[in-house]
Amino acid sequence: MILELDCGNSFIKWRVLRADAVTPVDGGVVSSDNDLLVSLDAEKFQLKKCRLVSVRTSDETDSLVARLVAAFGVSVVRAVPTREMAGVKNGYEDFERLGLDRWLALLGGYHLAAGACLVLDFGTAITADFVAADGAHLGGFICPGMPLMRNQLRTHTRRIRYDDTAAERAHESLAPGRATVEAVERGCMLMLRGFVLTQLELARQYWGQDFVVFLTGGDANLVSGVVPDARVVPDLVFVGLAMACPLS
Ligand SMILES: Nc1ncnc2c1ncn2[C@@H]1O[C@H](COP(=O)(O)OP(=O)(O)O)[C@@H](O)[C@H]1O
Ligand SMILES: CC(C)(COP(=O)(O)O)[C@@H](O)C(=O)NCCC(=O)O
Ligand SMILES: [K+]
């Protein structure tokens, strides 16, 4: 079986495929290397190969790879930056600086859309990437994700304090907040939605109506209502990972 990993700044997303490299068997989201090893061990998969993408430091990624090799004897292939792949041209001045999760998600998006696309990823950070119909990556935008926005306010103010249950309840409406938790949660939500609407506007300026919007990342559901036509593809990074790291 094949293990696929997407190591983000907050969570590791994992997925196990059959040896055909197509059929998913199981998957999950874990917050540490340890938890990953426990999940995989407990499930008793016959892992032979692993492909992964990481936006963590090389040291962190090396250490995880070493543990996977020691625990399961897998051979590991890592996604690496490329200037051009599958008809897509990396738009960064320094192509190696583009986050690999962004690169894979936009490769996956362009492949699925077979045309112009806007890829929005809602993780620790929120990212937007624009790929034109001819495969030119025009670049993108990065801003803080929902957890970062709310935690910045909690950390850098003295009187913004509330718990997660209250936060969840606050999202039942977007009316002006009548309590701190509502004011903050709804304020951050409106920033997030405003960001998304601005990206859509920009895409329309470039391409009219002729583009596909993809939503991915752990918090994609927060905005799916704002973009009813968008395709919510939680495993978009894995689509790109399979393209960038074919297993022979
Ligand atoms: N099962 C889950 N476990 C953890 N976080 C989740 C889960 N489902 C949704 N989320 C949301 O996803 C966000 C993290 O998104 P993710 O794409 O995993 O980030 P990153 O790639 O930066 O690690 C969290 O802030 C949380 O709100
Ligand atoms: C923008 C990111 C922090 C997003 O990471 P994530 O929220 O998925 O954990 C990551 O793609 C990254 O570290 N990129 C390098 C900088 C860049 O893309 O310009
Ligand atoms: K991500």
Automatic annotation (TrEMBL):
Catalytic center residues: D101
Binding-site list for ATP: D6, C7, G8, N9, S10, F11, I12, K13, T124
Binding site for substrate: Y92, G99, L100, D101, R102, T180
Gene name of the encoded protein: coaX
Pfam family, one: Pan_kinase
HAMAP family to which the protein is assigned, alphabetical: Pantothen_kinase_3
Subcellular location as annotated: Cytoplasm
InterPro entries cross-referenced by the UniProt entry: ATPase_NBD, Type_III_PanK
Catalytic reactions of this protein: (R)-pantothenate + ATP = (R)-4'-phosphopantothenate + ADP + H(+)
Required cofactor(s): NH4(+); K(+)
Protein family: Belongs to the type III pantothenate kinase family.
Role summary: Catalyzes the phosphorylation of pantothenate (Pan), the first step in CoA biosynthesis.
SUPFAM superfamilies in the record: Actin-like ATPase domain
PANTHER family in the cross-refs: TYPE III PANTOTHENATE KINASE
Keyword Nucleotide-binding: yes
Protein name per its UniProtKB record: Type III pantothenate kinase
Major subcellular location class: cytoplasm
One Gene Ontology molecular-function label: pantothenate kinase activity
